Every structure is written in structure tokens, then in C-alpha cells.
Amino acid sequence: MDLTVLWFCIVGFLFVGYFVLDGFDFGVGMSLPFLGRDDTDRRVLINTIGPVWDLNETWVIVAGASLFAAFPEWYATLFSGFYLPLLLILLALILRGVSFEYRHQRPEAAWKRRFDRMIVVGSAVPAFLWGVAFSNIVAGVPLDANHDYIGTFLGLLNPYALLGGLTTLLLFFTHGVVFVSLKTEGDIRVRARRLATRAGVLTIVVAAAFLLWTSVAHGTLASVLLSAVAAVTLIAAVLANSRGREGTAFALMAVTIGVAVLSLFFALFPDVMPASNDPANSLTIANASSSEYTLQIMSWVALIFLPLILAYQGFTYWVFRKRVSRAQIPAESTQGAH
Predict the structure, then answer these.
(1) pTM for the full predicted model
(2) 118: which residues sit within 8 A by CB, 6+ positions away?
(3) 277-304 pLDDT tens trace
(4) Under a CB-based contact definition with an 8 Å cutoff, are residues 226 and 268 in contact?
(5) How far apart are CA 190 and CA 196, in angstroms?
(6) Could you state, in order of their start, the residue ranges of all structural domains in the chain?
(7) 14 with 258: CB under 8 angstroms?
(8) Helix axes 53-70, 292-319, angle to 10 degrees
(9) What is the DSSP letter of 142?
């Protein structure tokens, strides 16, 4: 396989991993106003992702570093042209991480409510803006001959991109609520299952509209087939959740998100940043990649370290596989979410 194609696939795999794993973190954070009837409920919700949220978040760091090393031109155009939305995503992730650590530092209810609101915002903003960003990448943006973005921030908020943002927001929310039902016991588990079913129906409608638009306007045969698979697995996930099969529902939601992201990468290939104003200005895997020698070294590094990262991630999830319940949360605690 050509090394540029290989690294396009690796970058795609890393973003799939990030959206699947940090996606349910976002969903749990957004679920606080819906499932957190009191502080104990909210602590249960946060503790479901307490041991893993920061590990899940490292996937975007690895994806960004791989993008920088393998496709520096793509990285430069993306991070300069999409500077404001990516900055907002970064600030939201910082806000969310700080809130997880600080909400328990003082006992006052008002103190905790402020950080709970920041968790919600810090989860919803990336969930929405990642969809906006990737939708614009697939649709194409205006680039000059030097591959610099010549549009505006408001230009990124076009109808197709906004629908893409709403799709990722709802997908991650549903994914997170299904995860809550998988990881909790008692009343909160029942309420999470009901909420996931209601949210799942809305997600099916919005995601179907987005995938249909993508397939018609930007799709290839492979991306259309993958979109169809994503639609089927999403429907199956909602049905499994409604029948109380939480593990199956969560696995199907993970497949849905992963396949949907792959469909966007297949719709993009062989471009990495299409130019909407002039195809000659588009960035492709050929003119955006690093040298052959650089890609060879990176391939050996990935071959050694990627299996280790996956093994460590799997081990972490196995260790923290047990459900969380209200009974495990002391009435007064100074312990964090880890």
C-alpha cells in the first residue's frame, strides 16, 4: 500500500477512535440536566466516565500529531483556516476537564452547579463544532493557490455544516446516555434507557437527513454503502436499547459513529481538503503529505506503539468495567471523579 494512503487510513482510524470514545464522554456530560435530579445523581454520571475521560481525550492529541507529521500542508490549512472553531473546541475541552476536577473541591451547591453547567457547555460545544468542521472539510472550502483558507468563520456555518454539527451532537448525546444505562444501576439506569430511546428516534431522523445529503452531494460508492451501514446500525442500536440490551446498544452506537466517520473519509478521498472555488487549489494526499522517508519512520513507530496504546486502553476499560450506583456515593465526599 502507498504510504500516503496508509497514513490517510491511520489518521481516519485515530479520528474514529476519538469520536467513538470521547463521543460518549460528551454525551454523559450533556446528560447532566436530563438525568441528574440531585447532586448524587450527577456524581454518579460523572463517575461513569471519571476513570477514562482523560484517556479518551488523548486520541485527539495523537490524531492531531499524526496529521501534523504525515500531512503538514493539511494540518496548516486546517488549523489556520478553522482557527476559531478549533480554538473554541480547545477552550471547551479545557473547561470540561477543569470542571471535572474542581466541582468537588467545595461543598456549596452553587459552586457545584457552576461547574456542572461548564461540563454541559464543555461537552456540547465540541460535540457540535466537530461536526461543523468535518462537514466543511468534506464539502470543500474556498482556498487560494497557496492552499490557504480565504473564507470567513460565518462561511463555515452553512446549512450543510450546521446539520452535520447537529448530527454529531445528537449521536454523541445518544451514545453517552446509552453508556449511562450500561454503567449504572437502579432508577438512573431506567431513566437513561428511556431517554436514550427518545433521543435515538430524533437522532435517526437528523442523521438520515445528513447522510442522505452527504451521499447525494459528495458521496462515492464506498461512502454511500458505509452511510447505509451506519443508518442500519443506528436503528438497531435504538431498538436494542428499548429492549434493555444495553451492551448491544452501546456496541452498535460505537459502530454507527465509527462507520459514519469512515464514510466521511471515503467521501473525501483522495482529497484531504477540497477547494470549493477551484479544484486546482485542492489539497490531496499527494500534495499535502510529508516525504517518503518521514512516512516510513512514522510507520515503524505506529507499528510498535499503536498496539500498546490499544492494549492499555482495553486494560483500563476492563479494570473499571463495573457499574456505578447511588449506594457507592457517600452522602458527603471530597473525592473526585477518578
Answers:
(1) 0.93
(2) 95, 96, 98, 99
(3) 989 999 999 999 999 999 999 999 999 9
(4) no
(5) 10
(6) 3-322
(7) no
(8) 170
(9) -
